[in-house]
Fold each of these.
Amino acid sequence: MAAEEAGAVRRAPACLCVLCGLPAAGKSTLARKVLSTAAQHGWRAGVVPYDDLIPEDAFQTRVVEDGVKLQEMHTEWKLHRQAVLRCIEQFLEKPQVLTELPSSCQIDRAAWEQCIRALLQPEALDRSQAEREPLLFLLDDNFYYPSMRYEVYQLARKYSLGFCQVYLECNLESCISRNQSRSEPIPTEVILEMVKRLEPPNPQKNPWETNSISLNTKDNLSKCDIQRVMELISSALSNPLIPHVDNTEQTEADRLKCATSVVHQADQACRRLISEAMKTARENQVPPEHMRSLAAQLNESKAAFLHNLRRQMLQGASFTQEEDIDVERVVKRAVDIFDHERKGILLRIINENK
């Protein structure tokens, strides 16, 4: 069904609200409080918990032959995230369907059914009345890259929905402490790695992120915090996006696409250089414990290099299409910088063992 037809069938205003921040920053707690308040407003609201919907093995880390864990996640997780958005889109088109998911769907079916059950029409209301009640999706995930959040924005724009973001700002120490008190904590290394990657909403750089607020969640959420969130969502419901792409938004989309392409190719090139460095070290009979140190230093250097490269790409000169810049040339010049640092690390390790 076309977006326009879907909008004609669904008469109720609807909103996609992104909750983003570090693990244990308080996103799930905020979601529960917003759900309770939304019910008091007579809204139909549900949480989309990415951690429950996406299989745990999609986030497993890789291990190199020397046994050093890399903090780079499998690319499969991107496919799972896209599957979540496809399921939301299907519900927008067919809001009465509970279990009709494609056989190839890559999310947890039981978790999805629990997610949307609260969004189905209450039995106490007749259908015509229920369909006029506002509809709210709370997307609960880290959303540490703007490109992740932009995909949600695009979906909201396609169906003329409201769109808003709540960034939960919490210091690292508090997040680690809260995480450790959980029954199933995630590795602290994952949080430390995410701190390096996290890019909070920035309306000055990304005009599409204008409808965003930040909450300091070091302490407990206050009534004022919840009121701010509800006012943000109410404003989004009253001002749905128009399914139109202006030049600014298209430029930003192209920039994100190009940055992703450059970083991906640079990542592959850096992996090959690291593999060559490890081979050279073995040929020079570097001891196992120093091999592990070499691998750790090289991978840490690569992670910092790729993070800085991505920032530079997003903040660089404007362009309208990926083809407007020579991606291969940009990658080569960037990787040359990493290669210089790689050679320095390798030479230092070899000299220490002579």
Amino acid sequence: MVSISFNSEDYHDLNTFFASLGLIWFVALWTIWLLGTWAALRPRSPLSSATRTAVPGVSILRPLKGLDTNLYENLESTFIQEYPNFEILLCVAEEDDQALPLVRELIAKYPNVNAKVLIGQENVGVNPKVNNLMGGYRSAANDILWVLDSNVTVHSGTLARAVDALQAPTKSGKRVALVHHVPFAFSTESRVGSRIDEAFLNTNHAKMYLAINTVAIESCVVGKSNLYRRSDLERVNGSLKPITSTEPNAKQDGLCGLPAFGRFLAEDNMIASALWHELGLRHDLSCDVARNVVGNMSLRDYVQRRIRWIRVRKNMVFAATLVEPFTESIVLVAIGSSSLKYFFGLPRWLCILVHFFMLLIVDLDVYTSLAGHPLPQSIKWEFLAGWVAREMLALPIFMLAIFGNTVEWRGRQYRVLSNGEVQHVSNHRSFFDSSKFLGWYRRQYQALETQPVSP
């Protein structure tokens, strides 16, 4: 029998190793956060495409279902784009959709804008958004497509700047295949879930999203607002395997184009990844933001939404998803404060206090950069309460999400498969299903759900 013993020097070496690893991770994450904060400062570029007489045509595709919050203003923002050559294709699945009267009112208000309504859907997969978009995708008159969610409003110069970015040369020499925008949330409701989601998207999510896209070593795209060429999309199928043929129109075997992505729940991320990996092309992040209108969102809605996308990511990039808890502020400060105490003798309480004070300053700076103005006094305390709640809920939500593969989206249940695809399933619950745990959160915050958040 072999016996293994450790002396005090061995323990010291082991402690030093883990403390060093923790300090490196702490510094690395703060570097990433500061990079994202710096990237948020980019000013808007001039509208060169808007001033030219000959510009490429763009087909704007907007999938609609029901009366989203702020829908009239969201859709109107596409009618007033400062760009001389575009069409708007408004896609609805049903003839009795509540959005249709509002859409027709906008078309009548802007008779000089080339806009049309497309009613009906084509069943190409389990993703209802892709099915809804198929009519617009097939009838689009232009190669450049701008897919814009119905709950997003944009600046009037967004399209012109996005086209400029799509056509701009890159330092790597690889052509830009997709232009996207940072989601910036604003809430029209003083609900707990709405304020937490607003705080999440405008701080933690924004600075990480900006930092990853600034480094640009991997595809990282949210599909609130994406501009790409249909001719590029027709060459990929989501297999993420490089196309080996040198022919410019070479395709992968099997279904290609938008129909190929109907099998994914996160079709936006998969389209971006396919353009990156299959064609070897790149993305660009425009200086504009996609103003994502957050409506009446309860705490349960927020938790379910976060669980849904964590579970989707888990089945697409498992290793990266497992690292996520270590990027959250509470876990990170626990690691960092322990390492700083070990090497420098700094009190843990002081490290924690400085960490969260600096984090709040950084996050408010990111908000200011993206919004174009400081945090309004009218929502100051609600936003800060949402920020604190987001930080506290991050780890519990992750633990709920990591166990289980079923998600709920638009009232339907889906099972996420290992390759990121989804399949529709009848309502069921397993031991680790999140709905079993959400009742506790709902009861704890029931009082907050019925009234605005107060300081």
